[in-house]
Amino acid sequence: MPWSRVLAFSDPLLCQAAILAAEVEILPTTKDAFEVEITQVGANRLWVQDFRASAPTVCTVACKPERRSIGFLTESNSSPLQHCGLEVLPGDIIVNKSDVVHRRSGPDFDYGSLSLPTDELNQAVEAIIGCEFVKKSDQRVVHPHPQLMSGLLNLHRAIGQLAHDTPDVLQIPEVLRALESELIHVMVRCLANGVGLEPKTGDRHHNAIVARFEEFLAANSDRPLYLTEICGAIGVAERTLRASCEEHLGMGPIRFLTLRRMHLARHALLRADPLKSTVTRIVADHGFWELGRFSVTYRALFGESPSETLRRPAERISIHLNRPSSLVVTEPGYA
């Protein structure tokens, strides 16, 4: 059954749980207010998403293998996007794969995505271009013909506007079927005729290193990690790991590890009962033993002290449905 919804978030943890077709970890990199609006439309086969984000972030993304998706900047004045160390410009398309990747974006970021079940994308490609669609395995970004890309953006923008302003129109089967058919057709033609941006040999090496780095973090998510331990575990020199992280994450591994643990500590503080928990215990559980230094860094990043976060009422952390009536079905496949 078709559905549409518009969601607003001020909490990265809740935001990442709402993203379709991928497992995502969102780490804001500044103390700027985190505000994200996501517009989602589910047609018969196609899922459409539109993101408007206010704050700079680093994201770890693992797309689900049962669906194939593409992503692109939706506005020419959107902040820059780095995907696996590659600069993505307006007019480019990210071809998402099932591996783990990193993206970083600045403030005022506008991004869209489309996804189809993998077998249905293959069928659509064969029907539209008359042959099997084969792309090199390391091709992550393509640049379609500008006219085709313009058509894709216009259709994506139109369906998002309907979800915002007149979601009932999307309940008319003929309207949604026509939009879905046109989007799939233009999506396939963009991919088939796009010029791939080939990664350099050094980029591929850094991709592999960052993948091992992320695998080790995921396997040890319940404890603090340190650089010497990580370099030994993934078999790479500290200088090489630093260069790879700078390329993919926009920061060195130590800063990324600290940022990640700071956000984990913040989530724990937000969800703790101030009558039963203490800042000292929560902070220590996340690998910080110098409370004074932690507090200074925490305030610089989040704009408040750890104790203020702990005392914050839990009800202030919530998902806001801008159009509750547009939520036709519940939980249509959260990542």
Short description:
The chain is an alpha+beta fold. The protein is 43% helix and 22% strand.
Could you explain how this protein is built, in words?
With 335 residues, this protein is α+β, with helices and mostly antiparallel strands. The protein folds into 2 domains: 3-199, Jelly Rolls; 201-316, Arc Repressor Mutant, subunit A (Orthogonal Bundle). It is 43% helix and 22% strand. The chain has 11 helices and 14 strands. The strands form 2 sheets. Strands 13-12-9-6-11-4-3-1-14 form a 9-stranded antiparallel β-sheet, sandwiched between helices. Strands 2-5-10-7-8 form a 5-stranded antiparallel β-sheet. α5 crosses α7 (238-249). The longest helix has 21 residues, at 173-193. The radius of gyration is 21 Å and the shape is globular.
SS summary, helix count: 11
CATH class call of the largest domain? Mainly Beta
Q: Runs with pLDDT <50, length 5+?
A: 315-335
Query: How would you classify the helix and strand content by structural class?
Result: alpha+beta
Largest sheet: 9 strands, antiparallel
Number of β-strand runs:
14
Q: How many domains, as an integer?
A: 2
Helical fraction equals 40-55%
**Nearest-angstrom radius of gyration?**
21 Å
Instruction: Report the CATH superfamily of the largest domain.
Output: Jelly Rolls
| pLDDT averaged over residues | 86
Helix and strand sequence: EHEEEEEEEEEEHEHHEHHHHHHHE
Report the CATH architecture of the largest domain: Sandwich
Please state how the strands of the largest beta sheet are arranged side by side: 13-12-9-6-11-4-3-1-14
Overall spatial form? globular
Distance between the termini: 19 Å
Beta-strand proportion: 15-25%
Oligomer: single chain
InterPro entries: AraC_XylS_family_regulators, HTH_AraC
GO molecular function, one term: DNA-binding transcription factor activity
Protein name: Helix-turn-helix domain-containing protein
Organism: Bradyrhizobium shewense
